[in-house]
């Protein structure tokens, strides 16, 4: 198994066996939650200079850093096309006019020429409902390069505007997982896998975002469906406390419903997260 890599931007990761740790704490304020495209370019250059070309799963820290998947997908070696499979409770395809943030990066990835399709699986967030429809980037959906897999969200608006092909809605998480596994049956397409643990129910892993209903067994079934085809992977959704110095980050994170984390419970939640990380590593690289 290739060595896992920890992008240590928030100090949230436990000690994984054989890990490579990249000390990046000086970047936390700059890139946490969101950043300008210029700052993302600077960070990407740092990754190119410090990340080993051959490595295992990359751990990004808090879900506030999920946009770091973008530069990781960009540096996937080779020339073949590949799909991107994202486990997430949110579409991460929302409008953000100030650069890129943890909820807008999917558009950047979906429109890459080498990316054949992006599947975002596990959405229970109202972000894809009618009330937030105008906030979604519609370009990847119209281009047929993005599919939302969701449960418990009314997405009938998509059919009325000709986007039904990009929305797969189910009554239960189990039905959603079964449908995705069937969809992947027999496929040989290379896959980049990105896991945000807020897709899981809170009893699997507590995160600092609103969470979905995916069971650990459901997540394992999705990973198993990609067996032998994963050419890159990352995991995010750790839980960590942070007070933004930048006013607009304080404002936007509050608008997104991020509450302060109870310090008395933080250690227990991080231990739960660490145990899941170990199991995820075993699944992804089995």
Automatic annotation (TrEMBL):
Protein's recorded name: Arginase family protein
GO MF entry, a single one: metal ion binding
Native source organism of the sequence: Luteibacter anthropi
InterPro entries on file: Ureohydrolase, Ureohydrolase_dom_sf
Pfam families, per database record: Arginase
């Amino acid at each position: 198994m290739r060595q896992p890599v920890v992008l240590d931007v928030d100090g949230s990761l436990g000690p994984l066996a054989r890990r490579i740790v990249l000390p990046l704490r000086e970047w936390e304020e700059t890139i946490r939650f969101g950043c300008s495209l210029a700052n993302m370019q600077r960070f990407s250059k740092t990754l190119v200079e410090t990340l080993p070309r051959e490595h295992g799963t990359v751990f990004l820290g808090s879900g506030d850093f999920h946009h770091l998947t973008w530069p990781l997908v960009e540096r996937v070696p080779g020339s073949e096309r590949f799909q991107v499979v994202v486990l997430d409770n949110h579409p991460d395809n929302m409008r953000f006019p100030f650069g890129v943030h943890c909820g807008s990066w999917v558009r950047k990835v979906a429109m890459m020429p080498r990316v054949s399709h992006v599947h975002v699986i596990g959405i229970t967030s109202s972000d894809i409902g009618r009330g937030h429809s105008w906030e979604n980037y519609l370009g990847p959906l119209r281009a047929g390069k993005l599919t939302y897999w969701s449960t418990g969200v009314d997405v009938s608006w998509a059919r009325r505007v000709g986007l039904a092909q990009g929305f797969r809605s189910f009554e239960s998480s189990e039905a959603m997982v079964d449908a995705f596994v069937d969809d992947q049956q027999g496929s040989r397409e290379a896959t980049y896998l990105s896991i945000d643990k807020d897709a899981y129910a809170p009893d699997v892993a507590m995160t600092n975002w609103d969470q979905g209903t995916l069971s650990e067994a459901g997540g394992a079934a999705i990973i198993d469906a990609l067996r032998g085809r994963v050419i890159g992977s990352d995991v995010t959704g750790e839980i960590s406390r942070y007070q933004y110095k930048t006013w607009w980050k304080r404002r936007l994170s509050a608008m997104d419903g991020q509450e302060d984390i109870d310090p008395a419970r933080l250690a227990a939640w991080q231990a739960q997260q660490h145990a899941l990380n170990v199991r995820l590593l075993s699944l992804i690289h089995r």
